[in-house]
Amino acid sequence: MALQSPVSLSFQGLYRNFGRLAVLRDISGSVSAGEILLVTGANGSGKSTLLKCLAGLLAPDLGSIKYWEVGQEFTTAERRLRLGYAAPDLSFYDELTAEENLDFFARMRRCPTQRPRELLDRVDLPGGRMGHALSSGMRQRLRWCWALLHRPRLLLLDEPFQNLDEPGCRAATQLLEEHLANGAAVVANPGALDLPYVTRHLNLDN
Fold it and tell me: Does domain 7-203 fall into CATH 3.40.50.300?
């Protein structure tokens, strides 16, 4: 399957403990181009922990994670650089404007110079607003911009619609639809999304 799809992520038998607390126990799943893998479960079931493991921010205690693009498998470090990630604990520089924050990250990722402005316009976020003056909803819009800066083929979205108002949800959903249509694979927590794409479901309560 991995070799047949332009992009594919699979994980097998993941375990992750924090001290004596077992958070992930034998978790497996996969997602390919144009698909969304929905990760659901009760609070504390390990949804955010799973996404951090897939992003390469946490290492599982046991199990394997494999990521492919057009027949090439990437290491954890390479996967971390290629994917797009948005999560509630992703913070920005308060002393920079929204656009300056994105410009900084765009230079690090070697993105086109016009890309930050393009995304800020798409989510209707004023680029001149200082980081410390961004509301919770504005910060969430900025997280979407950060995740999509380099047009990743794999998107990991942890509570992606948290604090977004109705216009913000519409803008984010449209961006998500476009990336799926262009062949991206998405792992998202939580809930069902009303999108005309193949959707897989992983319930961590089972």
Answer: yes
Helices (H), 56-148: 76-82, 98-108, 115-122, 136-148
pLDDT in tens, 166-181: 999 999 999 999 999 9
Q: What are phi and psi of 141, to 5 degrees?
A: -65, -40
User: 204: which 2 tokens?
Assistant: 């961590």
CA distance 79 to 62: 18
Distances (CA, A) of 101 to 29, 38, 148, 159, 184: 34, 29, 14, 21, 25
Q: Where are the domains of the chain?
A: 7-203
Contact indicator for 186, 36 with CB cutoff of 8 Å: yes
pLDDT at residue number 193:
66
* Tokens 């004023």 -> residue: 126
pTM (2 decimals)? 0.92
